C-alpha cells in the first residue's frame, strides 16, 4: 500500500502495517526539523501546548522522545480540550518562552487570543505551530472568538509554522526530466480552474515510486528466476511480495517533492519553515531529512526584538553599589572635617602653655581630636563596597570600620567625660583635704573605657565575626530594554546574632552618654569657664544622641538603597564629630583671641561689680536714715577688717584649687572641709564688706 496524503503517525507502526508506505512525510516528521531549529537558535528550554486530539497527542509524544537526550528541557507540558487560556496562563507562570503548539485552526485562534490577554507575544516569546493551515485561516474563525482582529494579528505576528514542503525549491531535473517548477506549470495548465491540492506532487512522485519498484522487481526476477514473471503475481505469493517490499525500500530518486527515500516505510522528505509576517506567511527555511541539514534563508526571519527570544528569563545579578560622585562628595566633606580637626590639634599643641588651654587639660583635648579623626576615617571605609574592593577585602572592611568607629567614639567622649569627672571630683570633694588628679589618671580612665570596647569587639570577632552576606531583591526589567531581568543584590556586613551584639554595644555607649550627662549636671555651678564644659557636653550629648537615633532608624529603613544609607550614615558621623569638636574648641579659640584672662577669673568678680552698685545704694540709704550711729559704724569697720582677712585666706585656697587642676606639683596647703561652699561664700562676704 502506498499513500500520498495520509500523515497520521499511527500508520508508522510496522507491526500493524508492515506493507504500508507513503510518499508524504507523516506529522511526526516535523519533530526532527523542530529539534534542528531549536539547536540552531540555541533554545534549550521549551514548553508544549497540545489540543486533546489523538493526532496532536501522538505528535507531542513523539517530540518528547526526539528531544530526550538532546539537552533540551520540556519545562511544561499543557493540554486543553476547548479553552486554552488556563494552559496558556500556566505556561507563562512557568516562564516558558518557546512554545511548541499542536492544535487546529479553530483552536489556534483561541490560543492566540489568550496569548494576547496574557501578553505572551512580542520580543520575548516564540510560538512554533503546525504550518498546514489554510491561507488566511484566522479569518474563518475570528468571529467565534472574543478577540479583536488587530489584537489577534498582534499576537500571531512572528509565529513559525512547520509543515512538509509541497514541491521542492531546487532547480534540478527530476526523474521525469522536468524541474519541479516546470512540473508545477504543466500541472496548473492541465488542471485548469480546479482547486489545487498540496498533495499533488506527492501523488505524482508516488506513481514514479510504483513504477521504479515494479521495474526493480522485474529486473530481480529476470536475473534470478527466468521462469517467474511479474505477471504471475497473486496475493498469496509471499515470495514475490517480499521482492516487492525490498524493491520499495530501495527507492531513491529525486522527484518533484525532493529526494524520495524511505526509512521503515516512512518518507524522508523536506520540511519547510514559514513565518507569519505582516498578515502573510513567508518561507524562512527548510530541513532536509535525508541529509539532516537545516537551511535558513538569509535575513528572512524577523524577530520582534533585536535578537531571537531567550528560552527563559535571563536573570542578571547586578550589585547595588554606592555612586562614585556621592562617595567623592562625602569624602571631600570628610577631608574638610579632618583638616578642621588637624587645625584644632595644632591650636591645642601650640597654646598648651596658655593658662586657658592648660586648665582645660590639653592631653584630653588631643584625645578628643583623635577620636573625632578616627570617626571621620570610618566614613571612607563605609563607602567601599564590591564595586571598589574584592569580596575578601570587603569582609575585612566590615570588621575594621566597626572597630575604628567604636574606638573613635569612646576615645572622644571618654576623654571629654574624664576631664569633666576631674572637675567634679575636686569641687565636690567634701571629705578629703587634699585632691590632686593628674592627667595620667585620666588617661587610665579613658584606657579602661577603651579596654571594655576591646573586650566586646574581640569577643564579637572570635565568637560571631562579621561576614559578607548578599541580599537578593525582586527582579526588575532591564532599563536598556534588553530581554533580561535584573536581580539587584546588595552586600551587607552581618553575622548570626547581629541584634545581640549591636544591643551590647549600644547599651555600653548609652551608659557612657548617661554618665557624661550626670557629670555635666553635677558641675553646672562651677564658675570657672576654662574648667566647666558642662554646657557644651550637654549640647554634644543631645545632638549626638538625637542624630544617632534618627540615623540608625533611617539607615535601617533604607538598607535596600545603598546610596541613601551611606549618605545618612556619613552625614550623621560628620555632623556628630564636627559639632563635638566645635563645641569643645571654638569657645576656647574665641576666648583666647578676645580676652585670654577672662576665662580663668572666678565669676565672683562679675557678681561683685554688679552687687557693688546695689549695695552702694543701700549704704547711702542707711547713712541718710541713721547718720548718728558712729559707734555702730566703728564696730562694723572692725568686722569689715576681719572679713577681709577671711577673703585673703580663701583667695589662697582658690589659687590652690587652680594649681591642682593644672597638675602643678607645687607645694600646697590643706584644703578645708566644705571649701566649695566657702568659695561660693566669697561672693557674699566680699559684697557685704564692700557695702559696709
Automatic annotation (TrEMBL):
Keywords tagged on the record: Cell membrane, G-protein coupled receptor, Glycoprotein, Membrane, Receptor, Signal, Transducer, Transmembrane, Transmembrane helix
InterPro entries in UniProt: ANF_lig-bd_rcpt, GBR2_CC, GPCR3_GABA-B, GPCR_3_C, GPCR_3_CS, GPCR_3_GABA_rcpt_B2, Peripla_BP_I
Residue span of region Disordered: 608-634
Transmembrane segments annotated in the record for this chain: 324-347, 367-388, 400-421, 442-463, 500-521, 541-557, 563-586
Domain G-protein coupled receptors family 3 profile: 326-608
Localization terms from the record: Cell membrane
Keyword Disulfide bond on entry: no
Top-level taxonomic group: Eukaryota
Membrane topology, from the record: Multi-pass membrane protein
Single biological process term from Gene Ontology: gamma-aminobutyric acid signaling pathway
Family: Belongs to the G-protein coupled receptor 3 family. GABA-B receptor subfamily.
Protein's recorded name: Gamma-aminobutyric acid type B receptor subunit 2
Species this chain originates from: Lophotis ruficrista
Amino acid at each position: 500500500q502506498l499513500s500520498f496524503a495520509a500523515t497520521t503517525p499511527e500508520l508508522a507502526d510496522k507491526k500493524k502495517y508492515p506493507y504500508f508506505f507513503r510518499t508524504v512525510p507523516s506529522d511526526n516528521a516535523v519533530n526532527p526539523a523542530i529539534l534542528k531549529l531549536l539547536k540552531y537558535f540555541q533554545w534549550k528550554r521549551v514548553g508544549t501546548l497540545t489540543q486533546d486530539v489523538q493526532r496532536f497527542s501522538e505528535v507531542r509524544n513523539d517530540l518528547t522522545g526526539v528531544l530526550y537526550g538532546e539537552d533540551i528541557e520540556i519545562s511544561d507540558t499543557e493540554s486543553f480540550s476547548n479553552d486554552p487560556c488556563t494552559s496558556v496562563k500556566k505556561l507563562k507562570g512557568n516562564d516558558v518562552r518557546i512554545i511548541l503548539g499542536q492544535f487546529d485552526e479553530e483552536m489556534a485562534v483561541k490560543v492566540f487570543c489568550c496569548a494576547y490577554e496574557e501578553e505572551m507575544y512580542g520580543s520575548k516569546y516564540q510560538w512554533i505551530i503546525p504550518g498546514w493551515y489554510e491561507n488566511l485561516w484566522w479569518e474563518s474563525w475570528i468571529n467565534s472568538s472574543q478577540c479583536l482582529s488587530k489584537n489577534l494579528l498582534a499576537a500571531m505576528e512572528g509565529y513559525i509554522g512547520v509543515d512538509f514542503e509541497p514541491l521542492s525549491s531546487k532547480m534540478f531535473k527530476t526523474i521525469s526530466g522536468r524541474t519541479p517548477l516546470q512540473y508545477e506549470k504543466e500541472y496548473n495548465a492541465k488542471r485548469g480552474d480546479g482547486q489545487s491540492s498540496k498533495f499533488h506532487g506527492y501523488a505524482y512522485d508516488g506513481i514514479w515510486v510504483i513504477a521504479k519498484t515494479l521495474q526493480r522487481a522485474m529486473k530481480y526476477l529476470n536475473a534470478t528466476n527466468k521462469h517467474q514473471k511479474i505477471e504471475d503475481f497473486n496475493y498469496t505469493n509471499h515470495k514475490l511480495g517480499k521482492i516487492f517490499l525490498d524493491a520499495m525500500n530501495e527507492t531513491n530518486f529525486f522527484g518533484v517533492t525532493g529526494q524520495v527515500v524511505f526509512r521503515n516505510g516512512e518518507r524522508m522528505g523536506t520540511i519547510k519553515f514559514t513565518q507569519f509576517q505582516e498578515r502573510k506567511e513567508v518561507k524562512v527555511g527548510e530541513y532536509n531529512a535525508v541529509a539532516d541539514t537545516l537551511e535558513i534563508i538569509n535575513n528572512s526571519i524577523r524577530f520582534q526584538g533585536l535578537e531571537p527570544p531567550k528560552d527563559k528569563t535571563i536573570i542578571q545579578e547586578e550589585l547595588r553599589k554606592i555612586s562614585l560622585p556621592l562617595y567623592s562628595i562625602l569624602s571631600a566633606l570628610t577631608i574638610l572635617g579632618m583638616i578642621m580637626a588637624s587645625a584644632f590639634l595644632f591650636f591645642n599643641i601650640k597654646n598648651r602653655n596658655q593658662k586657658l588651654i592648660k586648665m582645660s587639660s590639653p592631653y584630653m583635648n588631643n584625645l578628643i581630636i583623635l577620636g573625632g579623626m578616627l570617626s571621620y576615617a570610618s566614613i571612607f571605609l563605609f563607602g567601599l563596597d564590591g564595586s571598589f574592593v574584592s569580596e575578601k577585602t570587603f569582609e575585612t572592611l566590615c570588621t575594621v570600620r566597626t572597630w575604628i568607629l567604636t574606638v573613635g567614639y569612646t576615645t572622644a567622649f571618654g576623654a571629654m567625660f574624664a576631664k569633666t569627672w576631674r572637675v567634679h571630683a575636686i569641687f565636690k570633694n567634701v571629705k578629703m583635704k587634699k585632691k590632686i588628679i593628674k592627667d595620667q589618671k585620666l588617661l587610665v580612665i579613658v584606657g579602661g573605657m577603651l579596654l571594655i570596647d576591646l573586650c566586646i569587639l574581640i569577643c564579637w570577632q572570635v565568637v560571631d565575626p562579621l561576614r559578607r552576606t548578599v541580599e537578593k531583591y525582586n527582579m526588575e526589567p532591564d532599563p536598556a530594554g534588553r530581554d533580561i531581568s535584573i536581580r539587584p543584590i546588595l552586600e551587607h556586613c552581618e553575622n548570626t546574632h547581629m541584634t545581640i551584639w549591636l544591643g551590647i554595644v549600644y547599651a555600653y555607649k548609652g551608659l557612657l552618654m548617661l554618665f557624661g550627662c550626670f557629670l555635666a549636671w553635677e558641675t553646672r555651678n562651677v564658675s570657672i569657664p576654662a574648667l566647666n564644659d558642662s554646657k557644651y557636653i550637654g549640647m554634644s550629648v543631645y545632638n549626638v544622641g538625637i542624630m544617632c537615633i534618627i540615623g540608625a532608624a533611617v539607615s535601617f529603613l533604607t538598607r535596600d538603597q545603598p546610596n541613601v544609607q551611606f549618605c545618612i550614615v556619613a552625614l550623621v558621623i560628620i555632623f556628630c564629630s564636627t559639632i563635638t569638636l566645635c563645641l569643645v574648641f571654638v569657645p576656647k579659640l574665641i576666648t583666647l583671641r578676645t580676652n585670654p584672662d577672662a576665662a580663668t577669673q572666678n565669676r565672683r568678680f562679675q557678681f561683685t561689680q554688679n552687687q557693688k552698685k546695689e549695695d552702694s545704694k543701700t549704704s547711702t540709704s542707711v547713712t541718710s536714715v541713721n547718720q548718728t550711729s558712729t559707734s555702730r559704724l566703728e564696730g562694723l569697720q572692725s568686722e569689715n577688717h576681719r572679713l577681709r582677712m577671711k577673703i585673703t585666706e580663701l583667695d589662697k585656697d582658690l589659687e590652690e584649687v587652680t594649681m591642682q587642676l593644672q597638675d602643678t606639683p607645687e607645694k600646697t596647703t590643706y584644703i578645708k572641709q566644705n571649701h566649695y561652699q566657702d568659695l561660693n561664700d566669697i561672693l557674699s562676704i566680699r559684697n557685704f564688706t564692700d557695702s559696709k
